[in-house]
Amino acid sequence: MIRDYWCDWDTARKRLGLGAVAAAVVMILAVTAFSGFAAGAEAKIMLKGRELVSDQGPSIVNNRIMLPMRVIFEALGAEVSWNEEARTVKGIKDGTAVELKIGSSYAEINGRREQLDCPAIIMAGRTFVPLRLVAESLDMEVSWDANTKIAALEDKVAVTGRHGLVVGDKQIYPGQSKDEMIRQMGMPSRIDPSESGFQWYIYNSNYARYLQIGIKDNSVVAVYTNAANFTFDGRLKAGMTRDTLRTVFKEGISLASTAAQISTGGMRVTAFIDIQDNNKVTSVLIRADSIRDYGGSEAVLTPGVLKANELQLFDLTNAVRARQGVTPLVYDDKVAAIARLHSEDMAKRNYFSHDSLDGKSVLDRMKKTGYTYMTVAENIAAGQQNAINAHEELMNSKGHRQAILNGTLKYCGTGVAVNGEGRLYFTHDFYTLF
Question: 72-109 in b/e burial notation, b at 16+ Cβ within 10 A?
Answer without folding.
Answer: bbbbbbbbbbbeeeebbbbbbbeeeebbbbbebeebbb
